Task: structure prediction
Amino acid sequence: MKQGLYTIAENKPLTEAVYRLRLAGDTSAITAPGQFVNIALPGLYLRRPISVCDVQEGLVTLAYKIAGRGTEQLTAMRPGTRLDVLSGLGNGFDVSLSGDEPLLLGGGIGSAPLYLLAKQLRAAGKTVRAVLGFNALNEDFCSGWFRALGCEVTVTIADGTGGAPRYVTDALPSGYSFYYACGPEPMLRAVFDRTAGPGQLSFEERMGCGFGACMGCTHQMRTGPKRICKDGPVFRKEEIAWPD
Ligand SMILES: Cc1cc2nc3c(=O)[nH]c(=O)nc-3n(C[C@H](O)[C@H](O)[C@H](O)COP(=O)(O)OP(=O)(O)OC[C@H]3O[C@@H](n4cnc5c(N)ncnc54)[C@H](O)[C@@H]3O)c2cc1C
Ligand code: FES
Result:
């Protein structure tokens, strides 16, 4: 983990509620797709965690959805503004588990961290399929990015627009070697219940410190209590225990 000042290089709306934020600064602590950064915002006591969507040396790309005060405040921040950011948080996805034909399952803004994963898998020569779910067609902020990488993409739309499948679990293909999922907890649970093969799932939780010190994000897993921020946010399927 590293703490540093980052300069906003871009903060641009992609849809009505989703923005792309590019931050220039030290990216050396970011080592795996699925890690996150934790951003301090003026007047807010707790930092706001956002997943790494893409990274190049000295530039990290995030995609955030307006959820409340912090993300709303972020939308008004202009290029050149400096932000205090903790980077390189969390374990991230394990690319080495993918096999030759990995499947990516994204729910809404949870599709963002799958982009860097897709990029690395494609660079390693894998055949990548992605099923990305949105509530409505105009909320799809990223399926084109995955197509541009050469992934085979299926978009699901919860309101059923154009006869699209409604949920990610309505469009699960067969024959994948490993799956990676990120999205809201009900989606993760449905994916968990309906997939037989091995996979990794990325969880969200309200966070205090974001780096393992406060225990505020602890979940009971099969292997004991785990901190979503430090032991996760990514867990292997067999580690996961759901609350009753
Ligand atoms: C590891 C991790 C990665 C994340 N990655 C992204 C991302 O890439 N893009 C993105 O848009 N969001 C992401 N989130 C969620 C994001 O952190 C919250 O939406 C944000 O902190 C809300 O802040 P706010 O001040 O706008 O809203 P608040 O006013 O704090 O909250 C508004 C609503 O959002 C809910 N909420 C707040 N924080 C979280 C949280 N951590 N998890 C789930 N629900 C929350 C609250 O319960 C409330 O209903 C991530 C969260 C985690 C833990
Ligand atoms: S948020 Fe403090 S331990 Fe996870």
Summary: Residues 207-210, 212-217, 227, 229-230 surround FE2/S2 (inorganic) cluster (ligand 2) (CB under 6 Å). The domain at 2-89 is CATH 2.40.30.10 (Elongation Factor Tu (Ef-tu); domain 3). The chain has a mean pLDDT of 96.
